[in-house]
């Protein structure tokens, strides 16, 4: 990482805690943009926490009416980065025990959360899209539960979907 690059640090203001997420204001709407093309937008722990923080930030700001979550390129969110990138680790073991995933924040947000699904959505990305108030998808978007390919029946999806509908 070069001297001119922004390093990961805990969230503050519109900074979401990681250089792989951007919080942009467009009038009364905020955008949370996942931008990590070198890992196809796979989320680190700091990125999961940053999405949760973005939702809390929108809910606390009277000038914002809602949040749009989207990815860059042809990937929305493929889920968590199983390779664990230490460059984006400002929390490390300190994140354990914290509610750092955004799923309940998406579901319980007082203001609308929209997922603009621009491509692959699986794992955590599938859950974020599923729990959003509205999910808009390009016609080439792919939704899948990757655990099934490994013989793991993740009952979370089956629990969340009927409750959400």
If you had to describe this structure to a student in words, what would you say it looks like?
The N and C termini lie far apart (44 Å). The protein has a single domain, classed as 2-enoyl-CoA Hydratase, Chain A, domain 1, CATH 3.90.226.10. The strands form 2 sheets. It has a 5-stranded mixed β-sheet, with helices on one face. It has a 3-stranded parallel β-sheet with strand order 4-6-8, covered by helices on one side. The radius of gyration is 15 Å and the shape is globular. The protein has 4 helices and 8 strands; from the N terminus they run E-E-H-E-E-H-E-E-H-E-E-H. The mean pLDDT is 87. Strand 2, helix 1 and strand 3 form a beta-alpha-beta unit. It has 165 residues and is α/β, with parallel strands linked by helices.
Q: What's the helix and strand layout?
A:
Layout: E1 21-26, E2 29-34, H1 45-60, E3 66-71, E4 75-77, H2 103-108, E5 113-117, E6 120-122, H3 124-131, E7 134-137, E8 142-144, H4 155-164
Parallel strand pairs: 2-3, 3-5, 4-6, 5-7, 6-8
Antiparallel strand pairs: 1-2
Question: What's a concise summary of this model?
Answer:
The chain has helices spanning 45-60, 103-108, 124-131, 155-164, and strands at residues 21-26, 29-34, 66-71, 75-77, 113-117, 120-122, 134-137, 142-144. The chain has 165 residues and is α/β, with parallel strands linked by helices. It has a single domain, classed as 2-enoyl-CoA Hydratase, Chain A, domain 1, CATH 3.90.226.10.
Please estimate the helix content.
10-25%
Strand content: 15-25%
N-to-C series of helices and strands: EEHEEHEEHEEH
CATH architecture: Alpha-Beta Complex
Mean pLDDT across all amino acids:
87
Q: How many separate helices?
A: 4
Characterize the main sheet.
5 strands, mixed
Rounded to the nearest angstrom, the distance between the terminal CA atoms is 44 Å
Shape: globular
Using the coordinates above, name the CATH class.
Alpha Beta
């Amino acid at each position: 990482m070069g001297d001119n690059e922004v390093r990961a640090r805990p969230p503050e203001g519109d900074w979401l805690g990681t250089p792989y997420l951007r919080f942009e204001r467009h009038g009364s709407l905020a955008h949370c943009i996942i931008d990590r093309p070198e890992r196809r937008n796979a989320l680190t722990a700091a990125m999961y926490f940053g999405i949760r923080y973005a939702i809390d930030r929108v809910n606390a700001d009277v000038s914002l009416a809602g949040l749009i979550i989207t990815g860059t390129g042809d990937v929305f969110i493929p889920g968590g980065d199983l390779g664990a990138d230490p460059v984006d680790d400002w929390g490390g073991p300190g994140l354990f025990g914290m509610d750092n995933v955004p799923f309940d924040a998406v579901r319980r947000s007082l203001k609308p959360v929209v997922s603009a699904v621009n491509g692959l959505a699986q794992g955590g990305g599938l859950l974020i899209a599923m729990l959003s108030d509205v999910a808009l998808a390009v016609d080439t978007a792919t939704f899948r539960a990757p655990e099934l390919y490994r013989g793991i029946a993740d009952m979370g999806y089956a629990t969340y979907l009927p409750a959400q509908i």
